[in-house]
Design brief:
Layout: E1 3-10, E2 16-20, H1 23-36, E3 42-48, H2 59-63
Length: about 70
Amino acid sequence: MMNTGWIVFDRKTGAYDGMYKRKEMAQGALESLTKRVPQADWELKENVGNVKLPVIDFWVNIYEPETWAK
């Protein structure tokens, strides 16, 4: 299998930030999310394979649902 990118996700809820092609970019997102959403348990993980990430599981939909009004 081939590495398709890096993913930042919350181990508590399964919420994710997105998929990044470069690890450095994912690390930057991890640092930012750790400050912005400290109640989460963020982790950076290599995403291998063709995994589709559902929009409903995006972190803003879980932690900041009011920002997605209509």
